[in-house]
Sequence to fold (908 residues):
Amino acid sequence: MLRFIIKRVLVALLTLAAIDVITFGVFFAVPSSPAAVMCSKNCDEARLARVNAALGLDKPKLDQFIDFNKGLVFGRDFKVGDKADHCPAPCLGYSFRTSEAVTKVLGRGLPITVSIVIGAFILWMIVGVSLGVYSALHRGTFADKIAIGLSLVGASMPVYFFALILLGIFVFSLKFFEFPHFVSITENPLLWAKGLILPWLALTFVQAAGYARYSRSQMLETLSEDYIRTARAIGLPKRTVHMKHALRAAITPVITLAGLDLGVFLGGVAITETIFGMHGIGWQSVNAVFDLNLPVVMGTVLIAAFFVVVSNTVVDVLYAFIDPRVKLS
Amino acid sequence: MRRTLRIATVGLAAIGLFAAACSKNTGEDPGKGQDKKLDAKLVYVDDAKGPAPEIPGAKKGGILTALGSADFDHFFPQATYRGDAIMVGGQLALRTLTNYYEKDGKLQLMGDIATTTGKQEDGCKKWTYTLREGIKFEDGTPVTSKNIAQGVSVSFEELSADGPQYIQRWLKGATDYKGPWTTKGQLAPGITTPDDKTIVFELSEAHCDFPLAAALPTTVPVILDKMDPSKPDSLESPLSTGPYKIKSYTRGERLEFERNSNWDAKTDPLRHNYPDGFVFDWTATDPALTTKRIVADAGADKTAIQWDNVPSEALPDVEKSADAQKRVVEGETVFSLFINMNTQIITDVDIRRAMIYATNQQSILQIIGGEKAGKPSTTLVPPVTPGHKKFDVYKKPLTGDVDKAKQLLQGKQLKPFIYCYRAGGTRPQTAAAMKEAFARAGIELVLKELDRTTYYNIVGKKNTDCALIPGGWGQDYSDNSTYLGVLASPEEANRDGSNNNAYLDVPAVGAKLKELGAMPDRAAAAPLYGDLEEQIFKDYAPWIPLYYDYSYSLIGSSVGGVFLSGTWGSPSLQNAYVK
Fold:
């Protein structure tokens, strides 16, 4: 097992290294000069050259790549005038537009994205899986049809549409909530939750729908297995059959999917963040693209990749624990 | 001055992209329906004393929140050039040698840190200021003339390159000066501080508009020893000398002001401190949703100010709410939009005249969002700027006069002209509309879209191959010397990074501009700028007027004293209070 884990971690590290190389390549493939973005409207050639030198962009590409990766491990200095602004490790570069380390920019966005995603994730898992299991256990009933119908609506509705409906009803018409506003959980947990209710609901409705449909089909498949019939035949209580034997088997692939989704979502939920005015990683990445702020684009890509790779690895390892059929080779 | 980024994002795809919105256009004539027109006349007040006159009905307390979609580029005063950032800094925290007070639609310039607007000698080549007693930084340190000298010196640094560049260019012997950090503590030449209360500026040429340039944040006092240029983001939270100081600032997210206990109202003739604080919330990413919030007027949004213009898609929300209509803050701004015709390429003045006739202003106005975003123009300089003259040299319907254009073009060999524009916003649509309008008269345009990082380099050189270049300009201060004085200047035409993108390089015009710029009586100079502009239109036709920018935003029901500042094109916080 230990060998398997080490192997998976090494593969993850290699994937991250490949992404590092590709994003760095994209950085230079884009026909835009970071120094020109930073240089003011009154920019002249001499000033452009100074900005390029200050940012280390006048060095050969390979040296720049080495500097970037050194910065990831040891941190690095960016020269401003005759002084240097230190960017501590893991230094993901320097935001030319706002004169600060990219890690500082992402440090502002990450708590917001994590708050939105983790809260919504818990909700959509509870709602989605409960609805799916309930539907499967009451297959063909009116309640099942309602649940299927609802999940079909949710699965086919884009998050921006549902988010705007939520805002229209609860904020602009009923005035039941104020417009969502992010407050740090350490500052005030109650206001934190209050500000996040609508983004949570928006993501939950859309995501739970998919999970309800998936858990329902998994549960139905499991219920038709021989061992469930056997369990029923030997007279085990219905509750034990459903909850202990059927659910446990049905939930495994759902958890796998959830792990992967969580990784993707932690990389940023741009549309939800934008509608609710929360500047998380997703918003930052979209904004950085429009702003030609390439170091921040690189940073958001790397962090999103990090989450996806980590969640993939964790799921792989967990799966090996949960499902003995998975080969450890 | 660059156009303030009071923007509207179009849906989700335009996040962070500067764009204007669209709606219907009524096609009304300029001058009509401008119910809140600002009187352009500027008055110098030399006996202003603190405290500022009380605002009837205003009361103390509460927090006002501005909801905007894009943070100021800078709040480091010497690097600030965006109109709203200069206004907010100046009104709340960052006092300058002189400053503006807008009263009943009239603009007054008065001594702010200084006692008067300045004493000139040697034909406007030497300016002396005496500082008011009792002005302190937020940490209690008294403000001296040396702090002003340090502030002006810092404006020479590369970190300040985004800021206004007037006093730096004017100071005697300062051509090669690079700033106190680069020169290890040396202050700018041309400035002397005989004592703590006196500062003298010596200029290489006569500049009678110096008191107006002194109102720009170039003259914000700083304590050099407390600034760390190796941490540029720390410079964005400057020390206050005004009624409020920065409580916290997260760039791109939120800027909070709280009361400054070291501010004394008796030293300040133009500021109040009614609210307990101000918050600038830059997470209101979608202006259409912000409009809906303020129309709904619930909870904390009652004390909110929409910092972006109401986008056209949200106009119906305002129109169907009688209550919201009472809370509109609107008016003309200092910006005017036009198209430069490169006189070095389109050398035949009749072709340029034909281009003016061929232009369809109606279609451009529809693209930018109709009457709430702009009023059709017939001049270059907008009504807000002193010296604006209302004239219409090339009379035509808003949709253009194609016959007249064709008549002017008869017998001429036309080649295709390159129309260069910056990517993003509504600029591509405007370019397409121009191409379509010109095609009616038989003029072919080749559209060339340029990236933001290369745009100014390409269009800013006299030998550019761009024949038509869209332009937008606003005065840097209330004097036509920063409008016509820049856009028609031969020196500007020959400078790299030029703003005279019509490349109008006429020595006679240059000489006249110099003569007007040196006139000590700026009120007398103003109408002469208008006459000159009309003459330029008649003789050279270098610009196609499109529209005067118009600002239209909303405030919550508990916001009092806020009006549209014609000077800055943003909701003024000068008299703001919470009802």
The beta strands of chain A are 76-80, 83-87, 94-95, 100-101.
